[in-house]
Amino acid sequence: MSLPAFALAVLLLLLTPGPTNTLLAVAGATRGLKASLPLVGAELAGYLATISTLVFVAAPLLAGQPTAALVIKLLSTLWVLLLAIRLWSNPPTATDLGAVNALGVFATTVLNPKGLIIGLVLIPPAATGAPGGLAAPLPYLGLFSALVMLVALSWITFGAAVLRRVAVANPLLVSRIAASFLVLFAAGLAGRAIGWI
């Protein structure tokens, strides 16, 4: 895949609402833009932890292992459901800056199925016998990192600019909508994992 085609595919994938983007928007709404900026690094670290492991180690090992892929998807589903329960039962407020924190964003991103798609499908694996060898994925990882930061800032800005007004007036509304969205996302993920969707 060429770098421009990769950039377009990754950009469309990253812009799609999901668990990490939901957390970033909620953080922007409750914490504001400046206080949410460290979450960009947490998201990038989460994606790079997953994708680097997939590209450099796991891709050859996971080939032909559908059970391992199913377990990973089901763990991702469970994490997203736990996030939804947390947002529903304990909505973050502007004074509760720890509700959406860097560790939560990191863990959510590590378990985000988008990382699996990017690491196993879009980025060429590092292999000594493959074209480009071990360095083949490096330009893709660099471009991916820049796109992650751009999209993360966009979601935080959306939360700070649009959702913040709603969150100040009714903090329960934003967290309940976000929690509901996460439950739907988890249901879709589980349905795809077990073949119902």
From TrEMBL:
How does this chain sit within the bilayer?
Answer: Multi-pass membrane protein
The protein's predominant localisation is: membrane
Record keywords, A-Z? Cell membrane, Membrane, Transmembrane, Transmembrane helix
Q: Which residues cross the membrane?
A: 44-63, 70-88, 140-161, 173-194
Q: Where found in the cell?
A: Cell membrane
InterPro entries from the entry?
LeuE-type
PANTHER family the UniProt entry points to: ARGININE EXPORTER PROTEIN ARGO, ARGININE EXPORTER PROTEIN ARGO-RELATED
According to UniProt, the name of this protein is: Threonine transporter RhtB
Instruction: Give the organism, scientific name.
Output: Rhizobium wuzhouense
